[in-house]
Specification:
The complex is a heterodimer of chains A (359) and B (56). Helix content of chain A is 7%, strand content 41%. Chain A is mainly beta. In chain A, strands 20-19-23-16-17-22-21 form a seven-stranded antiparallel beta sheet, with no helix packed on it. Chain A has a six-stranded antiparallel beta sheet with strand order 1-4-5-14-7-10, with no helix packed on it. Chain A has a six-stranded antiparallel beta sheet with strand order 2-3-6-11-8-9. Chain B is of the alpha+beta class. Chain B is 20% helix and 43% strand. Chain B is built from one helix and three strands. A three-stranded antiparallel beta sheet of chain B has the order 1-2-3, covered by helices on one side. In chain B, a hairpin with a 2-residue loop joins strand 2 and strand 3. Chain B is globular, with a radius of gyration of 10 Å. Chain B starts with a strand and ends in a 10-residue tail after the last helix. The chains are: A mainly beta (359), B alpha+beta (56). The interface between A and B is medium-sized, with 25 and 20 residues. Strand 18 of chain A pairs antiparallel with strand 3 of chain B, so a sheet runs across the interface.
């Protein structure tokens, strides 16, 4: 793309909503991976497997399997992509089977699109994709309730070559599209979808569809690969150049949905085994988060009696919290420092708590 | 989500969260309808797929 073309597109974007902050996708460059630090995931059930922050894969139990991983193979001007590799092929996808890469958007993020009204705006999805396969591939844009869908297709012309794809969609004038902190929109890229969830590309339908009729099923080919990065969703009919942003900016956006923490947190023993802690969240999270242990072996320093030791099988209970902080969480199985009620504890393990407020 | 071993946890006699094993991970889920885990727990309770044990 020429520089003149870039400027022309940016000017169009300014008319549509602004030069910065125009990408409604979070972590579209696939740089933030708080959960896995680049390790591969095996997607072998219908559960959600987050490859990087905000982008997940789902599969089918006891059927096809693929791995999903943040990698450093990316097009020019990018560092990362996520890569799906088929390790067990499924050439006969169950009618309700779904092999997907998916991104969910909060109502607060897409409210400017006016979806579900006569003022609905046209928007454009763009992304860089690379696959060992060529042909017509599919995906879909859905509302949060999954009763409005817009299946789309894109074509990969050359195997193992990065290509940028754009899909322009006239905003849906019907259906329910939340504008609050709940799930309002989903974007799915199909790696293979059963016939119950396929429909004709290029039009809104009042049903749950995850792919487009005639699409290539990546999952059907053993060792097939499919990669994506540079995902952008913006107001208007034109795909502008990808809006790169600082690492800290993207991390902050991701932390509205997932946060790791705990290092240096102080607490008070309320028994010989349990420690009460409080953690403020900054930024506020989307909703009150689920609390779990990212690491179950934690180094605890008892500041009252100067004992320091590793506690194993540590647990966490979410007693009193809100989107702005855990006012009272209880960390259990910490009986390693000869503690008693009232002793002061300091946690010396980094990022042992996981706070999840995903959509 | 595969949800197992769901049990309320109480503080001062009031339920404050649901502790459960979700997709193989032990989690403490707040009673917030906007929380995706709580929403799914309630959906599975509604359909009879899941029962939440009382707090100890």
């Amino acid at each position: 793309m020429s520089r003149a073309r870039d400027f022309a597109d940016l000017a169009g974007s300014a008319d549509a909503g602004g030069l910065t902050g125009r990408n409604l996708i979070i972590n579209g460059a696939m740089t933030i991976d708080q959960r896995n630090s680049g390790s591969a995931l095996t997607v072998n059930t219908a559960s959600e497997f987050y490859a990087v922050d905000r982008f997940m894969g789902i599969g089918v139990a006891s059927d096809g399997v693929y791995t999903l991983q943040q990698v450093t193979d990316a097009p020019d001007n990018f560092v990362n992509s996520i890569k799906a590799t088929v390790t067990t092929a499924d050439a006969s996808i169950p009618t309700t089977g779904r092999y997907l890469i998916r991104h969910k958007l909060e109502g607060n993020v897409i409210s400017q699109l006016n979806l579900g009204s006569s003022a609905a705006q046209t928007f454009t999805l763009s992304f860089y994709v690379k696959s060992s396969l060529t042909g017509t591939f599919g995906g879909s844009v859905l509302n949060g309730a999954q009763d409005r869908s817009y299946p789309f297709t894109y074509t990969i012309s050359s195997a193992n070559t990065w290509e940028r794809k754009t899909v322009t969609i006239a905003g849906d004038t019907t259906g329910t599209w939340p504008t609050d902190n709940t799930k309002a929109m989903q974007i799915a890229w199909s790696l293979g979808v059963g016939s119950d969830y396929l429909n004709t590309a290029g039009a809104w339908v009042g049903s749950q569809e995850w792919g487009a009729t005639g699409e290539t099923a990546v999952i059907a080919t053993l060792n097939a690969t499919w990669q994506i990065t540079g995902v952008q969703l913006e107001v208007g009919e034109t795909a502008t150049p990808f809006e790169h942003e600082g690492y800290g900016t993207t991390l902050g956006k991701c932390q509205r949905y997932l946060k790791l923490g705990g290092a240096g947190v102080y607490g008070i023993y309320n028994s010989a085994t349990n420690i009460e802690i409080s953690i403020p969240f900054s930024p506020d999270m989307r909703a009150t988060p689920t609390l779990s242990m990212a690491k179950t072996t934690v180094t605890i320093s008892n500041k009252t009696n100067s004992n320091t030791a590793d506690a194993t099988s540590v647990s966490a209970t979410n007693i009193s919290a809100s989107p702005s902080g855990a006012f009272f969480a209880q960390i259990g199985n910490c009986n390693v420092t000869s503690a008693s009620s009232g002793h002061i504890a300091q946690f010396r393990t980094d990022e042992f708590l996981q706070l999840d407020a995903e959509l | 989500m595969n949800i197992e071993n769901a049990q309320y946890s109480a503080d001062s006699g009031e339920n404050v969260c649901v502790n459960a094993t979700i997709d193989g991970v032990t989690m403490s889920v707040p009673l917030d309808p906007a929380n995706r885990h709580y929403a799914e727990i309630m959906r599975q309770v509604e359909t009879g797929e899941l029962t939440i044990a009382d707090a100890d």
